Amino acid sequence: MQNNRVLNLIKSKVSLAPMAGITDYVLRSMVRKYSPNCLLTTEMISSEFLAQVKETEIIKRDENHSPISYQISGHKPHLMNSAAKFLNNYADMIDINMGCPVNKVVKGQDGCALMRNPSLAAELVKAVKDGTDKPVSVKFRLGYTFDEMNYVEFGQKMQEAGAEFITIHGRTRSQFYSGSADWKLIKELKRNVDVPVFANGDITSIDTAIQCLEESEADGVAIGRGILGDPTLIYRIEHYLAVGEKLEPPTLSEKIEMLKCHLDEEISLRGINIGIKFVRKFYPYYIAGIKNAAKIRSVLVVEENYDKIIEILNSLNENKKNTGLALL
Ligand SMILES: Cc1cc2nc3c(=O)[nH]c(=O)nc-3n(C[C@H](O)[C@H](O)[C@H](O)COP(=O)(O)O)c2cc1C
Predict the structure, then answer these.
(1) How far apart are CA 208 and CA 288, in angstroms?
(2) Does residue 139 have its Cβ closer than 6 Å to ligand 1?
(3) Tens digit of pLDDT for each residue in 267-321?
(4) Which domain holds residue 307?
(5) Is 112 a catalytic residue?
(6) Of 38, 100, 112, 212, which is the active-site residue?
């Protein structure tokens, strides 16, 4: 790994993977609360959308969010260039989505469809580079299908086009999220490019992060779903890598406090009605493992009254034992 510009920016071996509808301003702020250095990433922002709308809560950031990468999606070089120009004032790095498997996205030639069109993908990297003085990175998968695993050549081509950092999800597009991420295959990419490579997929604990780093030989790991219900995970992995100590995950009591904070912050960002609705998707993760979780969740996801939600959460929060993480 020789790329000093990116290495100076990314001081941590763990990053937050982009997740549409999940890694919004609030969740990025929560992850940052615990991890001062990890690379944060926005959810993907459509370059078509940005061309029409310049004011959107998706791009909101705080001073302490650096280093932060803004991820854009699209397949039209001029729109990707404009998106990069616009985001240049916000971003420390601009990432291009080349891995999204969703039908609507790949039908539009965006996301993982770009892995079938490496020339266009390379053109996009160049167009984005022309629009920003920040490093440009790419995120992709192993390939479109098992028979089209072109991730090594694809990564090389993106590097040649000017990409300075790669995040790779160890699945193909055809897998969507099924099966498991193949971390061992990532090693082939790492050995064949010079830019830093972060491995991604199914890292949900300190142990899986260690295993992934060993198997992939990657420079770091990107964590997506693992932070659902536990915004401390990135910090705990970083802490282990720095000092060799495995911190316990937050207790239920701490998770409930984190959930209340998540709810309050989403309400501040989006207003009470939308904020309450937005947080519904997070309940199962924060209360997982609790007795009668399914029943409680089914009540929470329809409750519209803030005071009642807090009352239910407080009633769950009887176990006061904690690890101290929530107080950091
Ligand atoms: C709800 C959801 C939304 C996602 N949105 C994006 C996205 O906007 N951009 C992107 O590159 N990947 C996106 N991903 C993929 C993740 O970044 C990540 O590659 C994938 O979830 C595997 O990593 P994980 O097992 O750590 O979650 C999304 C995944 C999920 C579950």
Answers:
(1) 19
(2) yes
(3) 999 999 999 999 999 999 999 988 888 899 999 999 999 999 999 999 887 644 4
(4) 252-327
(5) no
(6) 100
